[in-house]
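Objective 1b of the project was to move from sequence-level analysis to a structural picture of ligand recognition. The entry below was assembled by the postdoctoral researcher (A.K.) and checked by the PI before modelling. It contains the amino acid sequence of the target and the SMILES of the bound compound, pyridoxal-5'-phosphate.
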Amino acid sequence: MASPSSPSPSDLSAYWMPFTANRDFKAHPRMLVSAEGMYYRDDAGNAVLDGTAGLWCVPLGHSQPRIVSAVQKAVATLDYAPSFQMGHPAAFELADRLRDYTGGRFSQIFFTGSGSESVDSALKIALGYHRARGEPTRTRFIGRERGYHGVGFGGMSVGGIPGNRKTFHASLLPGVDHLQHTHDLTRNAFSRGVPQHGAELADELERLVTLHDASNIAAVIVEPVSGSTGVLIPPVGYLKRLRDICTKHGILLIFDEVITGFGRLGTPFAYDYFDVMPDMVTTAKGVTNGVVPMGAVMVQPHVYDAFMHGPAGIELAHGYTYSGHPLACAAGLATLDIFEQDGILEHAQSVVEYWHDAAFALRDAPNVIDIRAIGMVIGIELAPRAGQPGARAFEAFRRAFADGLLIRVTGDIIALSPPLVIEKAQIDELFDKLGKVLRNLD
Ligand SMILES: Cc1ncc(COP(=O)(O)O)c(C=O)c1O
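Corresponding predicted holo structure:
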């Protein structure tokens, strides 16, 4: 076993790492060996402040003792239970608790194993919904440029990241359109909170409806705030306009809240923050505090009800071996307990201004061309080096890690999304370290 002070015994060659430059990593590895609270520890024993909540998935901080003990208890009691035609109490309990967490607005919860599975499940539910209601021609999906919806073929197809699509383009789903992204540095740079300009971009949906006819369109899927492509915050009024156009034409609206769910904006979900209700929400990550893989699709009553009037038998021919896994359910229940008992959202709200102030203090750092902030998320966009897109931010990532800070970069954008339990002293530490990195970067 590796310990914080001993080097890894592996030569690193067997593990094909996801979304990683394998050759570069294996030449210059960055190894995390333990985690507690706001900090990782690397294999040299250094503390690394977690500025990204892992991969946006650890809102309550690491090794939360109540989650650890809930999972330990679960594994010793019911390690696995089949999810097809069988149930176990914790899955029903977690679905009830999630329904309550949404104030009852999402009445049924379909469990998956990840965000990608949640997205593909939601797209299938949208097709099944229209078919069940006698509108089987509604099959088209509309996503958005710079959207990330995971790596299943459905999610990739509605996603809008050129690099993720290029290799697979011939096998993407047919019948998918994309709205224009909303990122507009000319009009909205250095917006604090929701930017002012761009609500009219939602009207493009009307153009697509005219082109294809509403009777052929199943659903629109967007992230309320795009995380993975660099913290793209929707302009004021934009999501409401999308909602109105979808409602007018009988199109389902799906919010992909894999990142924004579970408090990232200081509210339970982003739909609370924006006060715009989608028909379905996809989620994952924070649902178990990242401890055991799990995702979920949460649906409004009309979506579930549409399936419940057909012939007897299986209503939706879809599901996963690990849907509602007992360990994930135990972690999910403990996570919801802690959100409620420890006032996690209240804590996040109490530090959010401080968090934004600290970020905007970097406004004059070299190469910074935008800072954007919403809830407990910050995006800092750097000017790219000539002919080397992404190189400047990646160097910032490397240097920050060497200095004991984990940040996330995408292109030349730094995304910060710490555990929601971050304290002001840790916010100071984070921006001290990041400020030094940026000031010393050419
Ligand atoms: C908005 C969104 N959807 C889907 C996914 C995919 O989730 P997973 O990596 O759990 O499959 C992500 C992952 O970051 C995401 O941010």
